[in-house]
Structures are given as structure tokens and as C-alpha cells.
Amino acid sequence: MSLANPIWTCTHDKLLETNLFRFRQQVNTQCNQRIESYQELHRWSVENTAEFWSQIWDFCGVTGIKGDEVFVPGRSMLESNFFPQAKLNFAENLLNNFRVNESDDALVFWGEERIKNSVSWKQLRESVSQMAQALRASGVVKGDRVVAYMPNIPETIISMLAVSSIGAIWSSCSPDFGVQGVLDRFGQVEPKILIAADGYFYNGKEIDNLDKVSQIARQLPSLEKVIVVPFLRSNTSASDSTGDVPNATFYQSYLSQFKVAEIEFEQLDFDHPLYILYSSGTTGAPKCIVHGAGGTLLQHLKEHQLHNDVKPGDRVFYFTTCTWMMWNWLVSGLASGATLLLYDGSPFHPNPTILFDFAEQQSMTHFGTSAKYIDALKNEKVNIKQSHDFSTVRVMCSTGSPLVAESFDYVYNSIKDDIYLASISGGTDIISCFVLGDPSSDLYRGEIACKGLGMAIEIWDDDGQSIVEQKGELVCTKAFPSMPIYFWNDPQNQKYHAAYFERYDGIWAQGDYAEVTDHQGVVIYGRSDATLNPGGVRIGTAEIYRQVEQIEGIQEAVVIGQSWSDDVRAVLFVVMASDQVLDDSLRSEIKLKIRQGASPRHVPAVILQVADIPRTKSGKISELAVRDVVEGRPVKNTTALANPEALDNFSNLVELS
To answer: What is the pLDDT of residues 186-200, one digit of tens each?
Structure first.
């Protein structure tokens, strides 16, 4: 794949202003190198693992004891170790940032149009101090699990920082999860404390959650205390009732028992467990993925400062919930001295440009969202250039699904023409990215700019051979710090090994169907397990979506492979705009568009209209769940879906029988 002309160009003046340029100079000076390009820097970073990650520690100013050993290779990626002598505390690195003024904003929060508030660095540290003392008084110690059923609000970040300052382990779910979905996750990790909001706002509506909180608390036998954050009832006094939630206390009364004091940061091993994240759970019980403090910190510092050019005083936003790993990624921006801009609620309420209102009013520098959000704006023909002052935003990030070339065009034509658009991809598995932005080089439409520094990324064919400008499996051939430290309740690493290392013996296979381009950019065509295989030819679903979503009247689509006559046929489902209907004429238009824009092999055998498409809680289309319903198999974990009722649209369809 080659798209000849860059859509964004890094001038010499821009290059000199980047953190990447400064880092390259540091490497050249301290490691006796003569590196002159990103590709040379990437090659050096994967060939010199210990030197590279040591340089990242120093450049990003990690607080802690590094130790003499940086990387100890093992017999496999799983057995390799980073910084075995190091001691640090994750929360300390996020809070003790001397590059900021204590009266400056650390957090700014918008809850749709209803709530707007901010927390200074001084207030943030004081609240974390009180929360940490309260948790210690409740018996929370290193290694305990504290879980949160919370919106993306300042109290969530305050609580996480307090938990990690002690060395306890944090895990969170967004409040739109149903009771069983929460129990499927938290029930596995046996938490001591539950922090839960009384409800949340979405699309202008108030959703009361106290009854769900009560049900959850009663079914977690390990639980000793519930801390209720009065988000809906923000004027609630400490004496008001928390309903029938057992062992409950209000957040403010919980903190107010303690005076502000110096925070006691436990000094912990580099691989001390920090977060428990969960696989999507659409094919069974969610896997509990445990990430270490040091690896998470170092990887996020690298990605923020080098790949997204975050600097002290920047104002960083990502539209995310507390279920998605992008929340964890966003929070780490504090370690780079950035102000975090938090939003909770619908991104389209009270208007489709509420997030751009936020950007304009808060002088946002980094705007992060999903590819589907950008597609929705494109379909609605929203023109931000005409409506908003987006001048302060330097970087726009997109993830969650592949960002197609036409969406690049939309961003530059209708949002901002001199913005750096970083399509990024990684996952919950690594709490970070494999491929992402490179603000020191030119950018090509439809491509993820580069392989991440320190990430030995290749594309392999079925025989395990590295290929370029061909589609195959995205793999990582060398260990990196943000690999999970283990899976919960997986003492022999059997689930861990099965998840990533079975496809190619001992090599991390991410499960993405991808291609490296002639500029060393990356294009991801979809998940490998959702890849279509009609007639034995592998087709990435994103290639079909790219064509379909350009057609007027189609809001979104999902395509699956259905077993048919000893083969597989592609079946496309489309959601139409409210005043549109799928007819034979539109079917012909869709097929022609796919044939001309992709290939005859991409043309689906059947095209059907549906009212809705199932999505995971983080907004990703669940192709596998649709396929299971069409094939007559039960969907193993519907609680992982944001809209499980959408599955009914795909059941017992005459056209597919």
C-alpha cells in the first residue's frame, strides 16, 4: 500500500520543538550514536533494549531508584524482566510534579452541560492525602484490591492515586455496566473496598445507580466497606441515607475525618501490581489482566512525551469511560505535568459539538477520541473549522477501531488543517500502544505513523515469516515493560500463554490483521479473529467498512463470515439513517462501491438492514457476538455489551437460513 503524498508535514522548525528531537539528541550524546531519523531511532531502540529503556527513565524524569540492572532477558518474553532492582511509587510520579504551579489546574471536569468544575494540583494532593489515610484506617494494605464503579470524574482519579500510593491494586468499571457484568469482573479479584457513584448523567437523563450498588455489594463477600460518591446527589449531606447499601459511607465524610498531611508513598518493586483490567468478555468470562506499576508508568511516559509531544502545562483530553484502558492512559498524563480534561456523558449532548465546546473553552492541546466518533461527525457533515476556535489543539488522537483514509481527509478538511492526527492502536492487553504517532516525521493518510519505540513490531505470514507491504499478523518479537505481569488466578501462566503466545511459539501475537507500508507506517484491517475468509482468501473487515461508510444514508455497518456450503460467505448488516431504507438499488450501489474500492472478493454475498449493532462497553463493534448469533451459537457474555438487546436483530433471519 502506498499513498504518495503526506497529508501532514513536519517542517524543520516543528521538528526542533518536539520532545522526540530532544530525546534523539540525548541518545546520540549519551550512547555515542549518530541517529538522524525516527526509523533509525526505532531500530536502535529495539536492538538496544536496556539502553533504550534506561534513557526513557532518565529523559522522562522518573522518581525512584533505578538500580544497576535495566533488562534481564529470559528464555522467553514471559520470563524476561525489566528494572529488577528498581523501587518507585506510581502515584508519587503522578503527584510530585515540580514542573507545575500548585495553584494551576490538575483536573478540569465537564459532566455534559450540567456540571463544570476544576481541581488544582494543591487540592488534588490534599484530597489524595485524606483518601489514602482513610483507606489505611479501613485496613487497606499493599496488595489489597480496591474497585470502583464510577464515572470519569475527579473523585475517581483521586481514589486511584490514593490506592496506588499505598501499593493496593486498582480496578474500575463504568456505571453503565449491569450488576452481572460488574460481578463477572470484580467477583474474580475479591476486593476489600468498593467506591461507587450514586448514579450518572447520560444524554440529559439522570440514571440512579444506588440499587445496583446495593446488589453488587451484597454479592461480593470479600467486601468490607462501600464508599458512595454523591454525583447525582451532589448536595447530599453526610447524614443523609445511602439507601440499603451495606457498610456504606459517603465519600466526603470518609475523607473529612483526616487532616491533610504528607502523603506516604510506599516504595515498591517495578513489577508491583498496579491495575487489573479486563478483556471484553464477549467470548466467555472476562480475563483479569494485571499490569505492573513501573511498566505502565514508563510506557505511558514514553507515549505521552515522545509520541504525542505532551509537555508541562499542556491540557490533555481523551473521551473515555473508566472501563476502557484509555482512562488509565489519560490519567498518566499527570506525570508529564499536563492538566487532564475529563468529560463524562454523551459526546452528542446537548449538541453534537459539546466536546469541541470543551476544547475551545479550556484551551485544549490534545484531543483524543474514537474512530467511530470521527466517522459520526463526518456522516453528519459537522464543520468545526466554521464553528469553533480549535487553534490551541496540536494533536488529535484516534483509536478503538481503524481510522480510514477518508476520515483523515475529514479531519484535515473540516476540523483543522495543521493538526497532527495520531491514529493509535494497542490494547487492554498492554495498557498502551504497539503503533502510534510520530510528530517528528511526515504523516500519510490512512496510516498509523509508526511502530512504537522499544516495540519490536513485525507483520508475519502464516509461516512466521516477516513481510512488508503484505497483510498478515501483527506480532511483537521482544519483551517490553508493559506486558501484563500475570493474569489473575492463572498461577502457571496458562491463560496468559494461550492468549498471546500460541499462534507463533513464544512470540506475542496481538490478534490484529495488519500491513507495514513502504513508508514504515502501519495499516490495521481489523481483528484477526473477525477476519473474513471466503474461498480461503483473508479479508480485513475494515476494508469493507471503509467503502460502506462513504455511502450516503448509511450510519454504520458490521460484516461477518457465515458458514455456507462448506465455505464462508460475507454477510453485511447496515444501520440506515432515520429517513433511509435499504432497497435493491442501494444494495447494488454498495456492492459496486466495495468492488471498485476494495476488490470483487470483498463484495458481500448478502446485505441486510438492521436497527442497531451490538457494541462493547468501550464502543467497539462486536463482530464475534453477531457471528455467534447468526451461526446459532449462544453469546457467552452479553453483560460485556453496552446494548445486548441489539443481538435480537440478527437472530433467526430468513435470509440467512
So the answer is: 999 999 999 999 999
